[in-house]
Amino acid sequence: MSSTTNSPTHHTSTIGAIGAPSRRNTELALLVFAVVIPVFAYANVGLAINNHVPAGLLEYGLGLGLLAGVAHLAVRKFAPYADPLLLPLATLLNGLGLVVIWRLDQSKLLQSLKGFSPAAPRQLLYTALGIALFAAVLIFLKDHRVLQRYTYISMFCALTLLILPLVPGLGADIYGAKIWIRVPGLGSLQPGEFAKIVLAIFFAGYLMVKRDALALASRRFMGLYLPRGRDLGPILVVWAISILILVFETDLGTSLLFFGMFVIMLYVATERTSWIVFGLLMSAVGAVGVASFESHIQTRVNAWLDPMREYQLSRQITHDGILHSDQLQQSLWAFGSGGTLGTGWGQGHSDLIKFAANSDFVFATFGEELGLAGIMAMLLLYGLIAERGMRTALAARDPFGKLLAVGLSGAFALQVFVVAGGVMGLIPLTGMTMPFVAYGGSSVLANWALIGILIRISDTARRPAPAPAANPDAEMTQVVRPS
Amino acid sequence: MSELTLTVMRLGFLAVLWLFVIVAVQVIRSDLFGTRVTQRGSRREAGRQQQAPRQQPAAPPQQRGQQGGGRRGRNAPSKLVVTEGTLTGTTVALQGQTITLGRAHDSTIVLDDDYASSRHARIYPDRDGQWIVEDLGSTNGTYLDRSRLTTPTPIPLGAPIRIGKTVIELRK
């Protein structure tokens, strides 16, 4: 602008909304990328182990591509304004999971174990079912606010799902943690994975109604807002339930996940830091308290504190009646031998973990074969899913959708933390699985449903707002009449 | 397979994985949405900007405001404060831009006031950086202190400007 300007410059600012564009083509491009990466990995595994490109490369690539294409078309048709990143991120993680499960299927050591059968074809089937569930969520859940009507029904569903593994004859005690149910003819199921979603619906509906009471009535003490005694009720009830899960199902992960999800949602709903302080204190007290008398938890804690001792005990014949496992130590060695850049696909020895190498401990294989660089990228992929969930929550216009998106993405992030922390020896190991990459039908199905709900909320949030009904500019100005 | 091929594939895979992460983050960067603040120039200026579309509209007025501030010395007002009415407590920083007041949605300060017109008044700096208030032909008029404005008038620091039920003043 020239300095000779002598006119008064009149600048006004307009604050207008930028409608988020439909980003379906971006999504498609990323999706192609997300299918190509696992195909590359699959070829790499075949070349490293068998010296030739695996025979099923084309089928596998087409299969994954077809599933991704179906999911993409479902989003294009039923949620055109949804976030462009959620689907490609989930597809990539799921594809990498399929590769790593197929890679562990190739291990001679695992093949020699009793009851071995290739897991990759079944995981591909679960993925197909998961994508079908994802599409079903998008088709039948036209508006996420419908879920709000089922607030208390969700509570009962969630409690039922949580109690199911304890029902005699139905529940299955698999290596200590009772978080499975056995459905005759179908195999076993982990109801906790589904309870996660249903519980998020209940918490969102409940906190939306009660958050004002929980946020406003409080006293200030040492910089923290202390809630009134009676407002502690809900958090105490959820805490008690999570402790009961810990005692009866002896699974630290499930317990931590539900309590943590409630605390996150409570914090977001009330904006009071004190809830986080309370939540951390209560979970610490609960975990320490239960660990003092529950032998299964003690075993897990001991294995966490001293994995090497546990490793040596597993090599000896012990008579203490406890199943000693060298898994955690093997997992730590796997991470260690991976180093910064990893050994490369198919060249690690994470199959030494043996049992659950492709489910609970699947992350150790990534740690060994892709190294620190690889798992950092994977953790970032998980982080991006959680971030897109939080971004969806910020953009959502209704409080229920906000809380639900926060709850789902918070639970997702917490689950990643609990599992990754467990296999890396940061926290005691739990019986949960890494979302999308671990072998297991319940996990894959539940997480695809979770992504489906997040995509539905983000579609509603990013849809351009309807035009305002009346234009106030057109109204007449009232005239002041001197009285 | 030779060692070299496998090493290349290993590093290549990591590179591709990170490339995906970076592309995803780039998508997030281009995906920011929400509210946008657009600077709109006067008609004459807009014409000039069309001739030279590469000029950035936001920067020049700010510079001018700072220069003016230097000339006006310490008594230059730096903000506009709403002291009465539904918007009481609102402050708007004065950075050399024109501030429009009215019920219209595109006003800088949108008044929720039945006695204000849609385009009621505007406040702008003249060439010397002195802030001027001008009534835009409003129904109920704009008052500076007690007198109804008929011409654009310089605003003394702290003098109340009344628009309908709303009172604003300029402060340092």
TrEMBL record, chain A:
TM helices/strands, residue ranges: 28-49, 55-73, 85-104, 124-141, 153-172, 192-209, 230-248, 254-270, 275-293, 361-382, 403-430, 436-455
Topology of the protein relative to the lipid bilayer: Multi-pass membrane protein
One Gene Ontology biological process: cell division
Localization per Swiss-Prot or TrEMBL: Membrane
Keywords associated with the record: Cell cycle, Cell division, Cell shape, Membrane, Transmembrane, Transmembrane helix
GO cellular component terms, semicolon-separated: cell division site; plasma membrane
GO molecular function: lipid-linked peptidoglycan transporter activity
Classification via Pfam families: FTSW_RODA_SPOVE (PF01098)
Stretches of the chain forming a coiled coil according to its record: none
Entry protein name: Cell division protein FtsW
Organism of provenance: Streptomyces yokosukanensis
UniProtKB/TrEMBL annotation, chain B:
Keyword annotations of the record: Phosphoprotein
SMART domains, per the entry: FHA
UniProt superkingdom: Bacteria
Residue stretches spanning the membrane: none
Record-linked PROSITE patterns: FHA_DOMAIN (PS50006)
Record's compositionally biased regions (Low complexity): 48-65
Protein name as catalogued: FHA domain-containing protein
Pfam families assigned: FHA
Source organism of this protein record: Streptomyces yokosukanensis
Positions of region (Disordered): 38-77
SUPFAM superfamilies listed in its UniProt record: SMAD/FHA domain (SSF49879)
Xref: InterPro entries: Cell_Proc_Reg/RNA_Proc, FHA_dom, SMAD_FHA_dom_sf
All residue ranges annotated as the FHA domain in the record: 99-149
